[in-house]
Specification:
Blueprint: H1 15-20, E1 31-37, E2 44-47, E3 50-56, H2 61-70, E4 75-80, H3 98-109, E5 114-119, E6 132-134, E7 137-139, H4 140-157, E8 161-164, H5 171-181, E9 190-195, H6 202-208, H7 228-240, E10 244-248, H8 254-263, E11 268-272, H9 274-285, H10 291-305, E12 309-312, H11 315-331
Parallel strand pairs: 1-3, 1-4, 1-12, 4-5, 5-8, 9-10, 10-11, 11-12
Antiparallel strand pairs: 2-3, 6-7
Length: about 325
């Protein structure tokens, strides 16, 4: 049948109908909110390239954790900026390192909030790379023991999940083996399975102080032009014991999110990264975009592509908007 019997506009006639037939939905429970922690006291420092995002000292964390919890966001992704750096990133796996202390502090504030820790060396190394460096070459295999050691230290501090982001070959397997050996066989791994060498990371490197001091990360992060390679990388992480998969960045790689979703059955996260956040903020500040509508459209697109979970700096704002919409839906008549 064709027009006039088929009229798709019948299901667009008012807000209630549109809500009823909406295929893709955002909820606060789909979000993981990134947090940056720093040494010191009384620090809540805005990140210049990421408006409304902050670095927090440990004493400033409780108020932030309470707000995240109030918004029903179930999880955070924790990044640390250490007080000192060296060639092997020793602060990354120190018992009293900044992330380890932050995990303990957060769990004292809200033991039910899921604390996911980013596992990487780049914030902690003096050279800014994600592994051991020898003659300006990032060495894969010598890096694995330090990465696994970092994950174990996070687990011992009370982390609920670890998320290796370094893109060294074999790191998921190395982490899984060391966690299992030390009594953490039930601790899940969210692997940065598909992490591209992207231009969208610029603001994050400002936030985390992790810009490389020489070269770039293209010989371990993925080539942006490659999609089939993403499936090979993901398959390796599944084989090595990953529990949740991830694609990073999200917005320029919706096709990759869809391909990974169709190929693998594990839960899939997408990282709506710092550059994606910053460019929407900048466009909205200039009046070029409606900020709220644009953010919701982008995040809905990421979900529609196949992401089960979204790591996003917009998470708190979106959770509050969704709560507003819920209240309005409960008070506005269905048909008018």
């Amino acid at each position: 049948m064709s027009f006039p019997n088929q009229r798709p506009r019948r299901l667009r006639g008012n807000p209630a109908i549109r809500r009823l037939v909406k295929e893709t939905r955002l909820t606060a429970g789909t979000f993981i909110y990134p947090l940056f922690v720093v040494p010191g006291h009384g620090i809540k420092k805005e990140i210049p390239s990421m408006p409304d995002q902050f670095q927090y000292s440990l004493d400033k964390l409780p108020q932030e954790i309470e707000e995240i919890s109030r918004l029903d966001i179930p999880a955070i992704l924790l990044f640390g900026i250490p007080s000192s750096k060296d060639d092997v990133g020793s602060e990354a796996y120190a018992k009293n390192g900044i992330v380890q202390e932050a995990v303990r502090a957060i769990k004292k504030t809200n033991s039910d909030l899921l604390v996911v820790t980013d596992v990487c060396l780049c914030e902690y190394t003096s050279h800014g790379h994600c592994g051991v460096v020898k003659n300006e070459k990032i060495e894969n295999d010598p890096s694995l023991s330090l990465i696994a050691k970092t994950a174990l230290s996070h687990a011992e501090a009370g982390a609920d999940m670890v998320a290796p982001s370094d893109m060294m070959d074999g790191r998921v397997g190395a982490i899984r083996a060391l966690l299992d050996k030390n009594g953490f066989s039930d601790l899940p791994i969210m692997a940065y399975s598909v992490k591209y060498a992207s231009a969208f990371y610029g603001p994050f490197r400002d936030a985390a102080g992790s810009a490389p001091q020489f070269g770039d990360r293209k010989n371990y992060q993925m080539e942006p032009a490659n999609a089939r390679e993403a499936l090979r990388e993901t398959a390796l992480d599944v084989e090595e014991g990953a529990d949740i998969l991830m694609v990073k960045p999200a917005l320029a790689y919706l096709d990759v999110i869809r391909a990974v979703r169709e190929k693998f059955d594990l839960p899939l996260a997408a990282y709506n990264v710092s550059g994606e956040y910053a460019m929407v903020k900048a466009a909205a500040e200039k009046g070029s975009l409606d900020y709220r509508k644009t953010v919701l459209e982008i995040l809905t697109g990421i979900r529609r592509a196949g992401a089960d979970l979204i790591i996003s700096y917009h998470a708190k704002e979106v959770a509050s908007w969704l709560e507003e919409e819920k209240i309005q839906a409960e008070t506005v008549p269905a048909f008018h």
